[in-house]
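Thread: quick sanity check before group meeting

JM: Hey all, I'm pulling together slides for Thursday and realized we never actually wrote out the predicted structure for the chain we discussed last week. Dropping the sequence here so it's in one place. If anyone has concerns about the input, flag it before I start.
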Amino acid sequence: MDEQESVPFGLGLNYDSAMFQRNGSANDLKRTSDSARSLDLIFGIFLESGWVVFWRSGQTTGTTPNFLHTGKLTMQQSGTLVQHFDVAILGSGIAGGLMSCILARQGLKVVIIDTGTHSQFALGESAIGETTHMLRILAERYDVPEIAHCSSLSDVRQYVTSGGIERNFGFVYHHKHKIQNPNEVTQCNVSKFPFGAQRHYYRQNIDAYLIHSAIKYGAVAKQHTQVETVQLHTKGVTIATDTGEKFEVAYVVDGSGYESVLARQFNLREHPSRFKTNSRSLLTHALGVKPSDECTQPSSRHSRTLHHLFDGGLVWVSPFHDREYLTNPLCSIGVDFDSYRFPQPTALTPQQEWDRFLAQFPSIAEQFADAHPVRDWVSTSRTQFSSTQTVGDRWCLMSHAAGAVDTLFSRGMSSTTQVVNSAAALILQAFKDGDFSAQRFEYLDRLNQTHLLNLNID
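JM (edit): ok, ran it. Output follows.
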């Protein structure tokens, strides 16, 4: 044995007095001491058959250190390091956060891969009663209390972040170049039973909280990482990234939204989308938005999602600061345009297009007279998209990777929680049975396509 071979062997035996037995990979290291202490990872050396890690003693605890939840590592003949996990979750928005929390809590080895980093801007900030109930169901069914922390105003304030109250959906109709007529309004109350009023979620903090909770349960997060290829084979899935890393997993969950990795990889998008609606959006967060009660009638509409309607589109206003005890001063604002009536201009910036729009509707302009965005406006192309299929052998798409219609009636997060609830149960059972075929996930495809998307066609 030469010197290079003897070094990892000798050092590999230099762990502390807590006894371990090695069963083929670092993830299979098991304690044989009933009172073993927690361990801190110092460094590791990779061998052809796996990896050797070095520890030192830490404080006495009764739990396994988090780094032992990471997947085993192997070296390919090319010298490429391959990391092994049970599930890869693409995207770390609310779908990815919920799925990673649940699957990691249930004992699967989870890696989360995202091109961005937290905290990051996310659309879909208004909840309805079904959202609250589904979050409670997910927390109870899969034993993840952190999900319940996102389901009520008091818990969100205590554990996560500040956010607005949503007591109803308000609708105010406007005519071009005219003061708004108070008789052309309506509102639909949102039930607060049994968990209190609904919320306007400050999503970048909610999403980050869920990802951090998943990491606490043992998930591994890879941020600023772009997936380059996804290769399916009979025994698993190989994922290659722009960082040079490779991952071997048994199953892939794609929660990366419109820019879906799998939709691009497998050419799943329908062109054109089958939906009749054809709209585009401008959106941002802003300071200085006047409470709607000061601008229009009836009163008490600021504690809700307000829609300014006009011929060819709508403006939404979702405040995060509509009570004195809510400290987030921002307001989510945006406009949906009928793409046929309002084609996307080529010579205007998004801010210029917004200013031009406000100049046509004086009562809407009044609410935004002192407003200024805190981030660049986002200007989208067509909002609607759809997919030919949403499940396959060893993969599935979450709701907003599968398709979308528009923001009206705030169905987005509710749809997400429904898909997560069904997908998590199917994935956990698939690992028990060792069967990841598309057929066993057929219900999930029907849920995505028929119940959540096709209902919006007619």
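AS: nice. The chain has twelve helices and 25 strands. The chain has a mean pLDDT of 78.
JM: adding both to the slides.
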